[in-house]
Amino acid sequence: MKKIALLLPVALLLTALPCAAQGPLSPPGPPAPTMKTLEQIHDRTDPRTPISSLPCTITNSGSYYVVSNLHSTTNGIVIETSGVTVDLMGFSLTGDGGVGGGSDYGIHVSGATNATIDRVVIRNGTVSRFDRGLHCQYMNNSRIEQMVVSGNGKSGVHLNGYSGQCDGNTIADCTISENGSAPFAGVVLSGYEGQCNGNTIGNCSISRNGNYGVHFYSAGGQCNGNTIANCTISDNNSSGVYLDGDNSGQCDGNTIDD
After folding, report:
1. pLDDT tens-place string over residues 78-96
2. What is the distance between the alpha carbons of residues 167 and 200, in angstroms, rounded to a whole number?
3. What Cα–Cα distance (Å) separates residue 230 from each residue in 28, 62, 84, 258?
């Protein structure tokens, strides 16, 4: 029995050796790339489209990013369709200071009364020295975040529902300062003969603007159910927040919190 116990492991080892030696010794070839680029990690919509010069007009849905600081003597970026994300990547869009009294926009969301634009995201950069920083016409259910909007001739951020709709948008984590003169403001929500309802301004610093800090303006339309929350609004030339139901308009059910 002792001899069998000593020989059994040896027999098993000899049986296993031919199996371990099977298969080719050389590797099958160079390893294939498996890593994603930084751009692919940053945005799952691959590939993103770079914006390298201004003016730039976006007519197709998708994700776009700015590659450097850019300057324009007219409009900056014009968005003409829904489902667009524009990431400024920390860079600046700079205008010519409104030379010639024109109406140039740093970023213009160009919807229409019968063709609203939705699901737009504008984020992470600076817009300055345009007539209006961000002018968003007939834009619904969209988001402006982590933007610095300063030194523009009229409004900093203008949500415009003139004779149409500009509803359900969010302005978050932005610094909006030193924009405009009367009758404009750092942030304008305009439901003039239309509606600008259910929008949110949150976690923003709105200061040193030439007229109002925030202006809710209905003028024969609606500017209802909007919220300002967790904001600092200071040192503006006129009212910090002006809720304006002019010309038989509605400016109802709005909330100013913290």
Report:
1. 999 999 999 999 999 999 9
2. 10
3. 60, 31, 27, 5
Distance from C-alpha of 143 to C-alpha of 251, rounded to nearest angstrom: 22
CA 83 to chain centre: 12
In Å, how far are 79, 83, 155, 218, 219 from 244, measured between CA atoms?
29, 32, 16, 6, 8
Does residue 122 contact residue 147 with C-beta atoms inside 8 Å? yes
CATH of 59-257, one of 3.40.50.10750, 2.160.20.10, 3.40.50.2300, 3.30.300.30: 2.160.20.10
Of 136, 217, 144, 133, residue with least CA distance to 179: 133
Mean pLDDT of 133-140: 97
Q: Among residues 161, 163, 162, which one has the least CA distance to residue 142?
A: 161
Instruction: Note the residue count of the chain.
Output: 258
For residue 45, give the nearest of 65, 60, 63, 59 by alpha carbon.
Answer: 63
